[in-house]
Amino acid sequence: MKIHRLSLPVTVSLVGLIGVLGLSGCSSNFGDSANVASQTAMSIKGIVHGGQQGLVGAHVYMFAAGVDTYGEASTSLLTAGPTTSSDGTNFFTTTDGGGNFNIGGEFACTANTNVYLYATGGDPGVGTGDNSGAGLLAVVGECGAGNTFPSTVTNIYMNEASTIAAAYALAGYTTDPTHISAPTAHSTQAQTGVTNAFNNAVNLVVQATGAVPAKTTAGNGTVPQVELNTLADILAGCINSTGPTSSGCATLFANAPNTAGVLPTNTAQAAINIAQHPGAHVSALLNLATNAGPFQPFETSATDFSVGIVYTDPTIQAPRTIAIDAVGNAWITNATSNVVTELSSTGKVLSGTTGFGKGGLFSPSGLAIDATTGTAWVTNLSTPGLLQPNHVRTLNSSGALSGDFSGSSINLPDTVSVDGLGNAWIPNTGGVGGAIIAGVTEITRAGTIPSGAAGYTVGLVNQPVGSAIDASGNLWMASSTVANVLQMNGASTANTGSFTVHLLSGGILGGTGLAIDNGGNVWVASTGLVGLLGGINKVTTSGTVTSVAPYQGPLLTTPTGIALDSAGHAWAVNNSTNALVELNNDGSLAASNGFSIPSTAGSFSIALDSSGDIWIPNSAPNGTSVTEIIGLAAPVVTPLAGNLIAPYGNPASRP
């Protein structure tokens, strides 16, 4: 098989190769912002399996994700040596009679690049020789100086499960098995997104055995084991067959096209296409998983193939708002435990056993992060006593309580938005001094309050509970009880006190969530009243308001949270169901059946990260979990305020 020549240079020499990379187990951790695994010089050993048997004569390639642009070819890392051969463009190693391979030292990787293996072909032992429809993937991890990888990695097991794990985790940066890339050499956000995505693959498969784990590497995340078994079995029917014309391959390929409608030619590409379109051809694909499959148990029914990990921690109690910081960590307000929980991009708890802000937060609700300092702004809805007025608190980037802001202008603050200058904007649901007229409090990064003791008075918006900042520095607020949304003109640059009111259309009442796409259009999620008159409005840059997605039971019933990805797709969650809805930029449903959020009875908010993962809290009064949907969205810059500063400048920017 020929693979297109890959042009990026390899710069690290092969000096000091002293260790051996073998298979790692559940304890493997490629590191996060709080825990970076130690490195060791190495060679690579592994095995290529289809189901329960090795693939004999498979070609194993070693690649690093491209670092300059999106869509470019990955970098081939293998070099000439006693265990490698060339296909005319790239070097590969060949598996033996048991499916084993050993790369003694014939590779060179650049530090901070992310490395994976790609196997093609091989004889599955069914009597017809090489199966050209077989393609398998497995992540290795981030290369360190001198061709090193995490010391916990000792071998690489390539099979259907490792392929599914890589396909889903890397979906936001993948075109095909030899084109996984992002401008990581030029963008810290892209580097973060790709590295975190590679780390997430290790949450979905045990490198040492190729099995799907029940728990994540940190132990507090529940992996959808049965679903991942099912997806692996769907591939196995093709890999363990006579080839592309077999029923297992033909049915798989026919039901796993890419966005352009092009059918895959091997199982690795099929896995990528399924990961990027998990709501398509579900029934036909599900029929390929049977009791004869190598991965058991498996699902017999499914509405979609999105993959969600459910994280728990004693501090996660009635989680309300999630915000993602610059390194991909999730910050979560908890209305019942009265603390903020921080999870790494792989779900590890970073906020200790008691959470952040204990004793200083009371029914925390909104949270937004300063893109420059990492400061988290937290609103408090509760008033536990006369001596404890409504207030806004700040946590520094380490989670310690810092600022404390209160006064007559802060009255039942629900949400908060931070602009590109680091100013926090707080709409007050209680109005100004208890009046019906809404008020907005502005607090600068330095802690001054330009809005004064009374705040900025903005009429015609009642009880605003959703807010966002656009590229021009305008603050947008949604009224929770009146069918309108307000644009506060020039809020973050030179507030003039002027504002524009946009009336919602289509019978939609009560805006609860706001998000802005890369083109400047404002999306408003409205729960309506008792499940009626809800839906989603879109306010264009010209001020035109359209009801792009009216009430649609059972998918879009009480939408509360909404977020935009870098492809212009809107993602909405409902307060009363576990449905996640994806909308194209014109408002049409991107997936007709939506996606089911595991372990969630209803959600107040939604957040996207730079790996393309979607974070959703179980906001029910007794909710105790947060779900991370892996690789479903197009990656975005985080935190939200980071989109408003150089080198970006527009909301929902691509890293």
Automatic annotation (TrEMBL):
SUPFAM superfamilies listed in its UniProt record: Calcium-dependent phosphotriesterase
InterPro entries listed in its UniProt record: 6-blade_b-propeller_TolB-like
Identification of the protein by name: NHL repeat containing protein
